[in-house]
Design a protein that fits this description.
The complex is a heterotrimer of chains A (661), B (252) and C (255). Chain A is built from 18 helices and 23 strands. Chain A is an alpha/beta fold. In chain A, strands 1, 2, 7, 8, 9, 10 and 18 form a seven-stranded mixed β-sheet that branches. In chain A, strands 19-17-11-21-22 form a five-stranded mixed β-sheet. In chain A, strand 8 and strand 9 form a beta hairpin. In chain A, helix 5 crosses helix 15. Chain A starts with a strand and ends in a 21-residue tail after the last helix. With 252 residues, chain B is an all-alpha fold. Chain B has a single domain, classed as 3 helical TM bundles of succinate and fumarate reductases (Up-down Bundle), CATH 1.20.1300. The N and C termini of chain B lie far apart (65 Å). In chain C, the strands form two sheets. In chain C, strands 2-1-5-3-4 form a five-stranded mixed β-sheet. A two-stranded antiparallel ribbon of chain C has the order 6-7. With 255 residues, chain C is α+β, with helices and mostly antiparallel strands. Chain C has nine helices and seven strands. Chain C folds into two domains: 106 residues, Beta-grasp domain (Ubiquitin-like (UB roll), Roll); 107 residues, Alpha-helical ferredoxin (Fumarate Reductase Iron-sulfur Protein, Chain B, domain 2), CATH 1.10.1060. Classes of the chains: A alpha/beta (661), B mainly alpha (252), C alpha+beta (255). Bound molecules: flavin-adenine dinucleotide, protoporphyrin IX containing FE, iron/sulfur cluster and FE2/S2 (inorganic) cluster (FES). The site of iron/sulfur cluster has 14 residues of chain C, from helix 4 and helix 6.
Chain lengths: 661, 252, 255
Amino acid sequence: MKIIYTDALIVGGGLAGLRSAIAVRDKGLETIVLSMVPVKRSHSAAAQGGMQASLGNATKGEGDNEDVHFADTVKGSDWGCDQEVARMFVTTAPKAIRELASWGVPWTRIKKGDREVIINGQKETITERDEAHGLINARDFGGTKKWRTCYTADATGHTMLYAVANEALKRNIEIRDRKEAISIIHEGDRCLGVVVRDLISGELCAYVAKGTMIATGGYGRIYKQSTNAIICKGIGTAMALQTGIVQLGNMEAVQFHPTPIVPSGILLTEGCRGDGGVLRDKDGYRFMPDYEPEKKELASRDVVSRRMVEHIRKGKGVSSPYGDHLWLDISILGREHIEKNLRDIQDISITFNGIDPADEGSKGWMPVLPMQHYSMGGIRVKPTGESTTMRGLFSAGEAACWDLHGFNRLGGNSVSEAVVAGMIVGEYFADYCKNTHLQSHTETIQNALEGQYEYLKTILTYNGSHNIFAIKEQMRNVMQEKVGIFRNGKDLNEAVVELEILLKQTREITVNDKSMGNNPELNEAYRVPMMLKLALCVAKGALERTESRGAHYREDFPKRDDANWLKRTIATWQNHEDTVPTLSYEEISIDTMELPPAFRGYGRKDALIPHPFTQNRETQIEKLKEQMGDVDRFEIQEALMPFELPNGYKDKNERIGEKNG
Amino acid sequence: MNKAEIYEFLTSRNKQKKKSRTPARLDAIQSATGAILALFIVFHLIFESSILLGKEAMYRLTKFFEADFIFEGGEPLIISALAFVVFVVFVLHALIAMRKFPASYREYRRYQTHRHLLVHNDTNLWFIQITTGFMMFFLGSIHLYTMMMQPSKIGPFASADRIFSDGMWPMYLMLLVSVVLHAGIGVYRLIIKWGVFDGVQPQQNRLLAKKIIKWLIVFYLALGAVSLVTYIKIGYEHQEHYGERYHKGVKE
Amino acid sequence: MGDALNQKENQEQTFRTIEISVFRYNPYSKHSKPRFETYSLSETPSMTLYIALSKIWATMDHHVSFDFVCRAGICGSCAMVINGKPRLACKTRTEEFLDGKITLMPLPTFKHIKDLQVDTGSWMNAMSQKVESWIHTKEKTDISKIEKRVEPDVAQAVFELDRCIECGICLASCSTRIMRESFIGAVGLSRVARFAIDPHDERTDADYYELVGDDDGIFGCMSLMGCEDHCPKELPLQTKIAYMRRKLVSQAIKS
Ligand SMILES: Cc1cc2nc3c(=O)[nH]c(=O)nc-3n(C[C@H](O)[C@H](O)[C@H](O)COP(=O)(O)OP(=O)(O)OC[C@H]3O[C@@H](n4cnc5c(N)ncnc54)[C@H](O)[C@@H]3O)c2cc1C
Ligand code: HEM
Ligand code: SF4
Ligand code: FES
């Protein structure tokens, strides 16, 4: 069993991991990226819709800036996010997209002059400004005030990932794929690296580095129905949890996407609705305006998903062998538009369902149903990206709870987060690696390696009656049915109990193939217990959180309860033998908020229990603004909530038609 | 030995540390010679079919090529020279195109297995192309050699005698099939290779090109076959008089 | 996995049985011998090979290895030879095969890992490095300033080529590549074209000649069109390879 040393180790080769690797490499550090699959196959490639950045190029994005993006993000998060992080993010996002443009991402560009678009199902003509010609275009996405979501037709994540991966190749960053990290090596609260299993040979190997970053993406596959790729099992997050030290944040915050296609679960991008697609029920009736008169189909994802399920519960769903569903209609956009801008959608629909969405009338309607989509929770980190409790362990992207998204993330904010976090956290991570010396911990490392080897050997010796595949299916069913879009105490209680039983059963299985090599049965045998631990964090967190916030919706506690629940759930796995996580809470302080809690502008208006300090902070802010008098928005912002950024990322972003940059 | 060659041999780069431009030229020459040969064949087969209009027509055409409007009675050396030029182009083309043949049994086997799995028209066409190309090494050489050495023996009877009495018709039949298929497929390949008719709808245009070529192949095969049969018939009827030449106004 | 499809089984409807033969071999194991294993299973509506293989794996044979990531036809992981044709398995519906018999083989010309798994990743990375698949420019971009303008149509044309998912199908359907494993194939050639039309890239034709101006590159292509006819992303490979050929030949003639 080999030990490999490097300066910086990055586990995960999606947008977040690769962009971080570039940041580290550019500081002259030796960098290794490990990935379960060839990096260009990472799940980031699946993002179709777009990336949010307040460029304000498009007519409909005119007047957009960091402040507007910030407000949208905070509201979207249902005030669960870390506002400082949100500020760091919105300030860097325009730079991220411009950097990507210079790396060759073929962003869809603006053509000056008139253009026909469909807004709220109505044809409308908008005129793009002459001075915007050739600049990056943007489309409308749920939960945003301005058209801010930049895109490359409907393969945004793909083109971004390829550009970033190619830049990594250019810098000779060592990329090793088909390597799965399965455990973190640490000495007390200091991270030394990871134990890695080669998925071709089955060989175990220790990767030891000055700093380790986990950018392994989300854990959607703990649900039965998910839009996520099948590698999104959260192994990276789970191995952090298993240290007993690392904290996971807000694991119960799981987003459901309104429009995956039934039954395959493949996502039909929000861009469909952004471009003017509408939802219809079994009578062909467009029902969203009844629920959300202002934002209609484009309210934030949690709201649309719930409204859809609500509508189905009223008996308005279309029945099918796969359960009830609704329709997504984009045929009204016209064949030309679809074939140019939503081609992948058309492709998906034809390939997987045999429906051409460009066909006029009900023939082209696609069956859709909300499914698990995004994991807001993850490894809890500070704004620098370092774990709150383990030194030398960083995390970025969907795997992290940097806490940009709080309880609901906006469409287009997560590829954006992945890249922006790669830039910012990557920078802090590089600094950490530069200033750290690799001491000799050979014994710890050897022990960790042998420990994992023994563990896998033990799995092969299990002799029980359960089947790991069946356990996995049951877990996914429990999550789907009891920890889904609508949650309640009774179901959640049951879910926790059932998941605990399943977790115990993972040690009562038999693995038929005793090979330590390329053995897909063994893979499941060590992955499923890890997935179950994450599932337990989600279920337990959801059970304890007796309020509704963002994507977390409790039927028995339908109000957002700022008075008691303006806090982050923290989960740790204290002892190896535990069958439930230990929960604690981290207060979110109103005193330092730039935007104090309020109504989001969509969803139910009355569903809010305010925090007593909210009023205070509001007055404080009013006063401060008054005192400062006639100064620009940057000064006000700085006074309200100062924040820092490395590497010139705080420079003012230039926009056309904006004076002071 | 030339130093520059040694350097290139050792570094795969030329003096300026640049890649050799020869592959580009070879590629262009391969296509150019192929195109020239194809063009030649297009006319050649038409001229040859003049026999369908009667011996007189064929005779006149032959004499025309011997430039009887300048030289009294025609000058067969012109044909020799023409055949020589074609032969040079032919050899050049064959030499360059040979690079593309499967270079070992392993390559050949891999190609064959792959082709049978894939069942893909254009890939199969290539098999026809290399097979016919290979055949023409011999058939084409024989024919061109004859034309160079015995240019005077072209004419309604001389040709017919060669084809029938000299037992050359099987060779001509094979040559006909090879050359038409090879040239047809070759031209189709040229069109896509250089993007000649890409236009705005390259996929449709490719299909169209393929269709047109297919019909041209059928046409030329038919034309060639009918001509060949005609020669055979003449040769059969003329076998008693083997060796006699056709003259203007000879009685049938 | 089977997602909602599994539910369908409990219904009375009867589905036909399909037979899937899978190539099995583990080159890393001394005991393994190449063979085909045949599985019979009942077909569900809209069943894709992803669903079928997952079902085989979960319920019939836990040891068969294959690769799927996105199961949506966008990541390029699942390319394999399906009844002779290289295709994306996740985008292939079983109902398409009227006799209900499907034979699956790993993608040829890539390093075989096990059963249906091949190592496309390493090859693709090496290819990207060989053709220097990134923007070359001397310009230093200030990322807080307004981005460089690009004509919308040009951006669209670059995007057309940027859609490649490195699935390797173009190589597996190319007889040239099958014979000569040093040939870079349509994926490499179209990648060069992608940068050649990108206004951000300052490389000249002479630079591109250095990357693919040989018989392993553009002059190795024999226009067999296997790539064009099998590329699951329908990239304009035919026209873009021709484009590069014209460019590089005229570069060579001029120089
Ligand atoms: C269908 C779909 C569409 C989406 N569309 C959008 C959109 O339009 N806009 C938007 O902003 N967001 C979108 N998202 C969300 C967004 O794509 C992801 O949140 C984001 O790409 C995550 O990037 P990442 O780098 O954190 O992780 P990923 O891209 O998921 O990368 C994870 C990496 O970690 C590796 N890995 C995982 N586990 C291990 C391990 N144990 N050992 C080693 N390596 C490991 C994987 O191989 C992979 O390389 C979409 C998501 C889905 C599911
Ligand atoms: C000894 C005889 C010949 C041999 C061995 C031969 C061989 C070949 C081969 C192998 C190719 C394919 C090259 C490639 O795919 O890039 C080819 C192409 C071609 N051949 Fe021939 N050929 C011969 C004679 C002829 C003749 C007589 C003609 C004309 C009638 C001809 C016309 C063509 C054309 C037009 C092409 C396409 C050129 C290209 O693809 O660049 N060839 N030949
Ligand atoms: S060019 Fe097409 S076939 Fe080739 S790797 Fe790219 S997507 Fe696959
Ligand atoms: S699994 Fe991603 S393309 Fe098939």
